[in-house]
């Protein structure tokens, strides 16, 4: 089960790792996620949209920084 | 009936807009890309004024409760029916119970789904277009959500055959369309000479806030000439006594905002030019973070561009088979 | 004050400008005046009467006006030529129009706008004062009470409607020397309660819906200026109440009256106190105080 996959952006926007600036991040490297778990937010058109894991795994790395500008289909999170 | 299972990021019912109410603050709304909207309707035999679903950045997932003929145009969102990819800019037959699933936009920002018969939501001020700010038109005045059910009108008797397509030469390459033409004017004399020149030479990028109300752009600071502000204008050099904002007009609080179909209809910021009518739909297909360049043209060039655009749409319609 | 008059302003030549290929924008003056606004009103009313082919939107502004046209039907230069013809034929002093006086009750220093304005002190010129305290001082009033007295002391004319559906910009019907003027917030607020009554530049406004805003906040009205469901009787013909040229009489009320009116509005039974009047710029200029008093008798 060491095969690596990525969670990709479903839309362009600004990427956030926390639901709210004061809250802890949705997930950290090493956390395990299930299908449907939120891993971040994208802000676009003045709204926030949760990015959900489309498969289960362990977070191996974040490929973008908090508040980075992202494009649709850009790999955001690496899972293994 | 169309049953929505996932509404995407911002999907709304839009037609060709409502007119006659701008003076009381009601913007036209309507499809942001009227070329893609018009051809989607044409492919299924609808009038151009029929209501379609406009999807921004991400498409919907929906099930058809009856047999239907549909067409998807505009931004490419990789639509599938029952998991099988379908052609875009093409008339497609779907059966009762079929599920349409669309992904995110890989090119362009806005896709249109037309259904033969049009979406038969109630008209508000003679239009089915959604205006979310005050919650009128479309489906309950808001963006589509899971569980929404949209009625479809009577299927037109004459329409292109299933499988008819818009030939490639009439399908825009959205990625290449980064230049939009503007007629400078109204209050452009308030800009410094440097800023006025820079407006039409700088690279602007679409910000994440850009939406149906306005395309907010990022780039160099825009400066106004200092002056003793006229009575009633407010204190900032970018302020003027409140005036009407054309759809497509560029105002500059600090960075440019191009007003789109859900425009605020007036206010106290200097307007310095207007994106020409033929190019507003091209701007509407620019994604967040994409580049935009303004090219200054005179009004006769703008009128020629409008005519060229109309001829291209007519030619595209004629070429559908 | 019986001898007070409003002196018409000499306006510069209008600036005829293109708004792309499908709008014509006409600037009548850089600064606000009743002369400029009445001219905008008179010309746009004449445009409506002439029913010019290809004109699809006809919008008076505070000191300007704008038309949206269908360039497939009419060339913008032909519209401009017709507008110049209208401009040459108009005598604002001789003009009059059918207007309405509308009573707009206001609870000043209400808890809702107060909470909002306190939330955004860091975006304001004077973080240590309320918007009313700041405005009173800036306009040379000793205290908030006397500033509010001035604000409600004469009616305000709706000189433009827009930004969002139903938002009226209103210019107080007093001579220039008594006009109030305040800047907008240094940085706009991200929130404003619906039905907030604000002031910016030389204009009072009523915010139809909650949202962003940059005007100084003074109070809140229990009545609606926008009713998208058209449930209230006054909205039978349109979801927007105020129209350009209408006259708003802000009336100071207390919390009990606010609550009572609000209950009626929410029940859909509230009857607006308003009356049809004919407005004559010439008579208004000649003796504004007397003329205003006469207008207000219609809603007394």
UniProtKB/TrEMBL annotation, chain A:
Residues 1-80 form the Lipoyl-binding domain. It comes from Halarchaeum nitratireducens. This is Biotin carboxyl carrier protein of acetyl-CoA carboxylase. Keywords: Biotin. Residues 1-22 are annotated as: Disordered. GO terms for cellular component: acetyl-CoA carboxylase complex. One of its GO terms (molecular function) is acetyl-CoA carboxylase activity. NCBIfam families: PRK07051.1 (NF005457). GO terms for biological process: fatty acid biosynthetic process. Pfam families: Biotin_lipoyl. The keyword Nucleus does not apply.
TrEMBL record, chain B:
One of its GO terms (molecular function) is hydrolase activity. SMART domains: AHS2. Residues 23-312 form the Carboxyltransferase domain. InterPro entries: CT_A_B, Cyclophilin-like_dom_sf, PxpC. Keywords: ATP-binding, Hydrolase, Nucleotide-binding. The keyword Nucleotide-binding applies. Coiled coil: none annotated. Gene3D superfamilies: Cyclophilin-like (2.40.100.10). The keyword Cell wall biogenesis/degradation does not apply. PANTHER family: 5-OXOPROLINASE SUBUNIT C. NCBIfam families: urea_amlyse_rel. This is Carboxyltransferase domain-containing protein. It comes from Halarchaeum nitratireducens.
UniProtKB/TrEMBL annotation, chain C:
It comes from the Archaea. Residues 14-236 form the Carboxyltransferase domain. The keyword Nucleotide-binding applies. This is Allophanate hydrolase. It comes from Halarchaeum nitratireducens. One of its GO terms (molecular function) is hydrolase activity. SMART domains: AHS1. SUPFAM superfamilies: Cyclophilin-like, PH0987 N-terminal domain-like. Keywords: ATP-binding, Hydrolase, Nucleotide-binding. The keyword Nucleotide-binding applies. Pfam families: CT_C_D (PF02682).
């Amino acid at each position: 089960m060491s095969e690596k996959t990525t969670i990709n952006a479903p839309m362009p926007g600004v990427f956030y790792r926390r639901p709210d600036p004061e809250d802890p991040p949705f997930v950290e490297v090493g956390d395990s996620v299930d299908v449907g778990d939120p891993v971040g937010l994208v802000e676009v058109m003045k709204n926030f949209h949760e990015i959900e894991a489309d498969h289960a795994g362990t977070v191996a790395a974040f490929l973008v920084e908090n508040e980075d500008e992202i494009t649709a289909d850009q790999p955001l999170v690496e899972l293994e | 009936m169309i049953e929505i299972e996932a509404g995407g990021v911002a999907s709304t019912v839009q037609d060709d807009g409502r007119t006659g109410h701008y003076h009381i603050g009601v913007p036209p709304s309507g499809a942001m890309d009227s070329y893609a909207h018009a051809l989607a309707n044409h492919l299924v035999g609808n009038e151009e004024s029929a209501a379609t679903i406009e999807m921004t950045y991400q498409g919907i997932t929906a099930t058809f409760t009856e047999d239907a003929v549909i067409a998807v145009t505009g931004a490419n969102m990789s639509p599938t029916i029952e998991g099988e990819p379908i052609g875009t800019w093409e008339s497609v037959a779907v059966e009762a119970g079929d599920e349409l699933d669309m992904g995110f936009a890989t090119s362009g920002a806005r896709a249109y789904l037309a259904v033969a018969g049009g979406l038969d939501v109630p008209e508000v001020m003679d239009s089915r277009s959604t205006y979310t700010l005050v919650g009128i038109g479309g489906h309950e005045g808001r963006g589509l959500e899971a569980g929404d059910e949209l009625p479809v009108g009577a299927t037109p008797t004459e329409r292109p055959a299933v499988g008819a397509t818009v030939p490639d030469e009439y399908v825009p390459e959205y990625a290449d369309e980064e230049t939009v033409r503007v007629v400078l004017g109204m209050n452009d004399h308030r800009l410094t000479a440097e800023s006025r020149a820079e407006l039409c030479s700088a690279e602007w990028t679409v910000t994440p806030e850009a939406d149906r109300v306005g395309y907010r752009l990022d780039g160099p600071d825009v400066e106004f000439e200092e002056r003793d502000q006229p009575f009633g204008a407010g204190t900032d050099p970018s302020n003027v006594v409140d005036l009407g904002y054309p759809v497509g007009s560029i105002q500059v609080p600090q960075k440019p905002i191009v007003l789109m179909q859900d425009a605020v209809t007036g206010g106290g910021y200097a307007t310095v030019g207007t994106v020409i009518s033929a190019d507003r739909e091209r701007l509407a297909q620019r994604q967040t973070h994409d580049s935009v360049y303004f090219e200054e043209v005179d009004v006769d060039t703008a009128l020629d561009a409008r005519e060229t655009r109309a001829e291209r749409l007519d030619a595209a319609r004629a070429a559908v088979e | 004050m019986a001898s007070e008059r409003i002196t018409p302003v000499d306006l510069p030549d209008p600036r005829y400008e293109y708004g792309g290929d499908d709008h014509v924008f006409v600037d009548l003056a850089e600064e606000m005046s009743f002369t400029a606004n009445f001219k905008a009103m008179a010309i746009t009313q004449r445009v409506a009467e002439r029913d010019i082919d290809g004109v699809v939107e006809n919008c008076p502004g505070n000191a300007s006006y704008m038309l949206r046209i269908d360039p497939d039907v009419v060339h913008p230069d032909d519209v401009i030529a017709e507008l110049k013809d209208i401009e040459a034929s108009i005598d604002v002093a001789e003009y009059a129009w059918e207007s309405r006086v509308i009573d707009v009750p206001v609870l000043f220093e209400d808890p809702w706008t107060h909470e909002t304005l306190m939330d955004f002190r860091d975006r304001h010129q004077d973080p240590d004062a309320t918007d009313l305290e700041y405005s009173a001082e800036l306009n040379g009033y000793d205290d908030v009470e006397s500033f509010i007295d001035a604000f409600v002391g004469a009616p305000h004319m709706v000189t433009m409607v827009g930004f969002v559906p139903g938002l009226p910009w209103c210019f107080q019907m007093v001579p220039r020397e008594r006009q109030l003027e305040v800047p907008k917030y240094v940085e706009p607020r991200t929130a404003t309660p619906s039905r907030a009554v604000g002031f910016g530049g030389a204009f009072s406004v009523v915010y139809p819906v909650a949202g962003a805003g940059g005007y100084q906040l003074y109070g809140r009205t229990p009545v609606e200026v926008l009713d998208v469901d058209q449930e209230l009787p006054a909205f039978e013909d349109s979801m927007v109440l105020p129209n350009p040229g209408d006259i708003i009489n802000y009336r100071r009320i207390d919390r009990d009256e606010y609550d009572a009116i609000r209950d009626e509005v929410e029940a859909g039974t509230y009857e607006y106190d308003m009356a049809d009047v004919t407005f004559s710029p010439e008579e208004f200029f000649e003796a504004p105080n007397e003329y205003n008093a006469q207008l207000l008798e219609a809603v007394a």
